[in-house]
Amino acid sequence: MGTAAAAGLVLGFAMDRTFGDPRRGHPVAGFGSAAMKLEQFTYRDSRAAGVVHEVVLVGAVTGLGIAARRMVGRGLGEAVLTAAATWTVLGGTTLARTGREMADRLESGDIDGARELLPSLCGRDPNLLDADGLARAALESIAENTSDATVAPLVWGAVAGVPGLLAYRAVNTLDAMVGYRNERYGRFGWAAARTDDVANLVPARVSGLITVALAPVVGGRPADAWRAWRRDAAKHPSPNAGVAEASMAGALGVMLGGKTEYRHGVEMRPTLGDGPVPRVPDLRRAVRLSEAVQITTALAAVSAAWLLRRGRRETGR
Questions:
Q1: Is the distance from CB of 305 to CB of 5 less than 8 angstroms?
Q2: Residues facing residue 267 across a β-bridge
Q3: 306: number of Cβ within 10 Å
Q4: 270 phi, psi to nearest 5 deg
């Protein structure tokens, strides 16, 4: 990596900000279809089968990224390839647009429309939620996916370039497909879920730190965001989502968690943060904070990519 890769990260982020997700032929959707077809052959109710499924798919995507980077070489080709890969794996702009659309529908009293939109953000049962419940579900999804959809890909792109970008998105997509604790995937999806946890350990904390620092953007205090993170994040069943949600809850001055209704049943989640339950105006504030975190992460990732490459050149690696 170097100047070309850093430029590619900037351009790819700008493309996501301008266009959002590709509307047709999204490569991530294509990867998902391939994963579903492979699952017909690899599925067994065992962890070993899940490991094979994960290694084959993530390995294939990583290998593709390595081959493509070698093929284009350095310079303009590397910048264009990095930009295309970055745009492909980012989802932050679509996330923010969906959050704003959810707020619009809730403010206009279009509860049915808001319920129709919720599945594009999370897997909760929208028919069981009122306006406040829909706002809370959307806000929690924005908090978690700010890290998953933008911060983590940019971190891995800064560290490992195109292979890092593609490998992370493969890992995250597989977790979303099979990383569930249910009868079918409890064992088969174990590898996908654990790999995603490891891949997000650092990015989630980067996201948390930036959220803490930017709390004043939405009228919050960094000290409150930091306190909510340190006190509450570990209560969450996910080692990474807890960081993202608790820091945002503290920054917004709201309380997340509690009774959470999915199609597969009800979970009692621990509460994160202090204050009232979130309402529609808090959802708009969350979108604003998410976008600020995304932009700051992009600037930091570009700087990190350039510095890492410079350090490798100076050490002769």
A1: yes
A2: 260
A3: 18
A4: -65, 150
Per the CB < 8 A criterion, the answer to whether 249 and 255 are in contact is: yes
Task: Give how far the C-alpha of residue 118 lies from the chain's centroid of Cα atoms, to the nearest Å.
Answer: 17
Region 221-235 average pLDDT: 97
Residue pLDDT, tens place only, 42-81: 999 999 999 999 999 999 999 999 999 999 988 899 999 9
Non-local (6+) Cβ contacts of 210 within 8 A are 151, 293, 296, 297, 300
DSSP state of 258: E
Q: Which residues is 256 bridged to in the sheet?
A: 272
- Judge contact between 244 and 147, C-beta under 8 A: yes
User: Residue 155 in contact with residue 206, Cβ under 8 Å?
Assistant: yes
DSSP string, 81-144: HHHHHHHHH--HHHHHHHHHHHHHHHHTT-HHHHHHHGGGT--B-GGG--HHHHHHHHHHHHHH
Residue 121 carries which side chain, given as an amino acid letter? L
Task: Give the pLDDT of residue 34.
Answer: 97
Q: How far is CA 299 from CA 151, 209, 261, 293, in A?
A: 11, 15, 37, 10
Global pTM exceeds 0.85: yes
Q: Could you tell me if 308 and 272 are in contact, meaning their C-beta atoms sit under 8 angstroms apart? A: no
Question: Hey, what long-range contacts does 37-44 have (CB within 8 A, 24 or more apart)?
Answer: 39/178, 43/188, 44/188
Q: Does 314 score more than 60 pLDDT? A: no
What average pLDDT does this structure show over 26-46?
96
